[in-house]
């Protein structure tokens, strides 16, 4: 395992090339080549380890937050139906994320001062791309209402696993990053394993989905995958830019598009019953959780990538099921065990596949 | 794909070391080292290609025969219950295999003459091991009657997939052949994929199998795996010995042990109703098919190995289901599709894993 981890770090060095290069530049001005090489190696290892740690922490945070998010949803469903307007909750999630980003930025400004990388004002050229992910998610959420004419809710859960494949394909096409053949095999297994884990006695009904349903599911998977990959492209385009500045711009447009969604879908309810109608403790917890996991997604995009995000959320799905056994007395099926085995092997293969890339 | 195939052939050269070495020895007596190397390479490639073709043909034959065997079983079940004594049928299968081996040997003797490698008489030292696989299968078949006290028939089908794991483990321990990490991952996937493909609404009941049921299923998987690996060890021990001589000895003991089984289980039925009671056209076809697939198994052991056998029979299981859709109007489940995807990826990984062994 240790060997593999170190090999993995070697492979992850790609995005850190700038820093390593600058270190190498400095060391060249010193004397004694052997000593230099050692210094460079130690420097590289330290940077690699820091990066690896940061990547692990954000991935773990995303997994735990996504899993607890699903558990909160199960909990709220058991407590009764959604009585609040989902659009107002989404708007509050974006607002909270925006506020957190600004608060962190404020602290950074006080300790490090305002620099080129952490100032909020940027060129129109840079900001112009930030509304796109929020717009894509809005379209996807609107489509979601129509797909239920063709598929039932459990079927939709199954079809949502198409997101895994669409993310992998768009990651390759748009970000032009390569996955090894073994990693592609792992990705197909991840999709098959997640779907297997979710199988139940009614799952076969999804095979009767009419053609329009498949088209809509595919379009939704592509929209969702595209939004994720596009967000990564925006965030990675300027690696030195502080993530909180990037988040601020993402979330401010998120607020704007969710305000539009309130007007389209819940204007009457908000006008008649008030903005916070039907809110409970669990709603507040869900908003808090969504905001934190949203920030974790951004962090994963910055310090890891969409592939790691997909693995992380898949593991969260399995984790949710296991936790639900203890919390809600759920039973685990044989299909769940088999799906978990396949997902575990996929994770192993994803990391083993790095070596031969 | 072409690249992978050639790489695969490189790896398969292990068992052909003798031939390649003797070629190399001859070429050393020639003059001109560059020319020699070319000759050796061409010679190696030709031998590799012949081996690869032979391996492919026997594997394909085993897949098709195993699949049609399963289809005959479904057909005979739909036609009505088994009315014949299974032990007499098994005895006839062994007899037929023995007769076919002798007939082929007779032809070889006429064309090539009797040599050290194709003569039937051998030392006791060599023959002494041949009864063991037949004895193991007899014990396993007797145990089969008792496991149904703990597991129902569909549950037993699921548990039989433990054979895949036991074969892999015993193959490693007894034959001391190595599988790469990727190939182990592929083997776990093969087991998970086959089980997934067989899932149905009652499969979860297998999770309620009592401890004794699990123990018996494990013992049976170990017996079956051991018998397979042991057969491979016997056959591979003397690579130059003609396969039909080896088969003759395997099957003659198979006849003997199945005669014992008739005495234990069906003595009364045979005495009262006759040896061939309840035989029909389909019974004859099943006996013919079992005999040919038994010979195909031996061939796979000789020219490939137990791992190839397991992959071959797994693919046969999937093939059977697909053919049954057309023949019997079966419906394929979502679980079947997912299992097929996982098995397909496992096959790819098994071949891709060769490269890094």
Automatic annotation (TrEMBL), chains A, B:
<feature type="transmembrane region" description="Helical">
    <location>
        <begin position="247"/>
        <end position="264"/>
    </location>
</feature>
<feature type="region of interest" description="Disordered">
    <location>
        <begin position="1"/>
        <end position="20"/>
    </location>
</feature>
<feature type="transmembrane region" description="Helical">
    <location>
        <begin position="211"/>
        <end position="235"/>
    </location>
</feature>
<keyword id="KW-0472">Membrane</keyword>
<feature type="transmembrane region" description="Helical">
    <location>
        <begin position="182"/>
        <end position="199"/>
    </location>
</feature>
<feature type="transmembrane region" description="Helical">
    <location>
        <begin position="56"/>
        <end position="76"/>
    </location>
</feature>
<dbReference type="GO" id="GO:0000139">
    <property type="term" value="C:Golgi membrane"/>
</dbReference>
<dbReference type="InterPro" id="IPR007271">
    <property type="entry name" value="Nuc_sug_transpt"/>
</dbReference>
<dbReference type="Pfam" id="PF04142">
    <property type="entry name" value="Nuc_sug_transp"/>
</dbReference>
<keyword id="KW-0812">Transmembrane</keyword>
<feature type="transmembrane region" description="Helical">
    <location>
        <begin position="334"/>
        <end position="351"/>
    </location>
</feature>
<feature type="transmembrane region" description="Helical">
    <location>
        <begin position="88"/>
        <end position="109"/>
    </location>
</feature>
<protein>
    <submittedName>
        <fullName>CMP-sialic acid transporter 4-like</fullName>
    </submittedName>
</protein>
<feature type="transmembrane region" description="Helical">
    <location>
        <begin position="310"/>
        <end position="328"/>
    </location>
</feature>
<feature type="transmembrane region" description="Helical">
    <location>
        <begin position="276"/>
        <end position="298"/>
    </location>
</feature>
<keyword id="KW-1133">Transmembrane helix</keyword>
<dbReference type="GO" id="GO:0015165">
    <property type="term" value="F:pyrimidine nucleotide-sugar transmembrane transporter activity"/>
</dbReference>
């Amino acid at each position: 395992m240790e060997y593999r981890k170190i090999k993995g770090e070697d492979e992850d060095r790609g995005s850190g090339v700038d820093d390593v290069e600058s270190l190498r530049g400095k060391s060249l001005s010193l004397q004694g080549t052997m000593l230099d090489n050692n210094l460079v190696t130690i420097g590289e290892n330290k940077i690699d380890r820091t990066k690896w740690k940061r990547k692990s922490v954000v991935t773990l945070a995303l997994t735990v937050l996504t899993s607890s998010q699903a558990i909160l949803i199960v909990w709220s469903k058991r407590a009764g139906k959604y009585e609040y307007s989902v659009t107002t909750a989404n708007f509050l999630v974006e607002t909270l994320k925006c506020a957190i980003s600004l608060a962190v930025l404020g602290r950074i400004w006080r300790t490090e001062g305002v620099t080129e990388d952490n100032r909020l004002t940027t060129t129109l050229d840079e900001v112009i791309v930030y509304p796109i992910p929020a717009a894509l998610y809005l379209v996807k959420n609107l489509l979601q209402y129509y797909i239920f004419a063709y598929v039932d809710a459990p079927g939709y859960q199954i079809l949502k696993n198409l997101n895994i494949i669409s993310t992998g394909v768009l990651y390759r096409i748009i970000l032009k990053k390569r996955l090894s053949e073994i990693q592609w095999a792992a990705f197909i297994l991840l999709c098959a394993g997640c779907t297997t884990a979710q199988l139940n006695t009614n799952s076969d009904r999804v095979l009767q989905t009419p053609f329009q349903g498949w088209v809509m599911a595919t379009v939704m998977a592509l929209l969702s995958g595209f939004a994720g990959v596009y967000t990564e492209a925006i965030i990675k385009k300027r690696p030195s830019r502080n993530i909180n500045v990037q988040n601020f711009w993402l979330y401010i447009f998120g607020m704007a598009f969710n305000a539009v969604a309130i007007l389209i879908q819940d204007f009457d309810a908000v006008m008649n019953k008030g903005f916070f109608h039907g809110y409970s403790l669990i709603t507040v917890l869900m908003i808090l959780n969504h905001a934190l996991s949203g920030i974790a997604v951004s962090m994963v995009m910055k310090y890891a990538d969409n592939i790691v995000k997909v693995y992380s959320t898949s593991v969260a799905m399995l984790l949710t099921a296991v936790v639900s056994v203890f919390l809600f007395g759920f039973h685990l099926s044989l299909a769940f065990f088999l799906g978990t085995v396949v997902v575990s092997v996929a994770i192993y293969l994803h990391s083993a596949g790095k070596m031969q890339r």
